[in-house]
């Protein structure tokens, strides 16, 4: 129904910046919200930032450093990451919440992109 393709990951030094992109295709009209999640080795996946209903929410650990945005014309979600820290090192995943019926929603996930912050 909806496919998500991510890009923009890489390796940077502490204090550096990266911009992640996630382009959606398929039945994008079903998307009601989108967000970014991350998972480090041996840890559970955690929410980083969510965009829904014109508002944005961020994890406390990234508040003030990350910014989520959407370009609906391009069906693309972005995550601008500034002042990166080693603790930000993780695989980052794009997520779309889809409304498939009056009472049902499903989640679609991207393949993930690696972000590594080290000296």
Based on Cα principal axes, name the global outline.
elongated
- H/E element sequence: EEEEEEEEEEE
Question: Mean pLDDT, nearest integer?
Answer: 95
* Low-pLDDT segments, ≥5 res: none
The portion of residues forming beta strands comes to over 45%
- Please summarize the sheet with the most strands: 7 strands, mixed
> What is the count of DSSP helices, taking H or I runs of 4+ residues?
0
> Which class of secondary structure composition applies to the elements?
mainly beta
Provide the helix percentage.
Answer: under 10%
Count of DSSP strands = 11
Estimated radius of gyration: 14 Å
Span between N and C termini?
41 Å
Characterization of the model:
- The protein is an all-beta fold and 119 residues long.
- It has no helices and 11 strands.
- Strands 2, 4, 5, 6, 9, 10 and 11 form a 7-stranded mixed sheet that branches. The chain has a 4-stranded antiparallel sheet with strand order 1-3-8-7, with no helix packed on it.
- A hairpin with a 5-residue loop joins strand 9 (90-99) and strand 10 (105-109).
- The chain starts with a strand and ends with a strand.
- The mean pLDDT is 95.
Quickly describe the structure:
With 119 residues, the protein is mainly β.
Tags for this entry?
119 residues; mainly beta; seven-stranded mixed beta sheet; four-stranded antiparallel beta sheet; elongated
How do the strands and helices of this protein lay out in sequence?
Layout: E1 2-7, E2 10-12, E3 18-26, E4 31-39, E5 46-52, E6 55-58, E7 66-71, E8 76-81, E9 90-99, E10 105-109, E11 113-117
Parallel strand pairs: 2-11
Antiparallel strand pairs: 1-3, 3-8, 4-5, 4-9, 5-6, 7-8, 9-10, 9-11
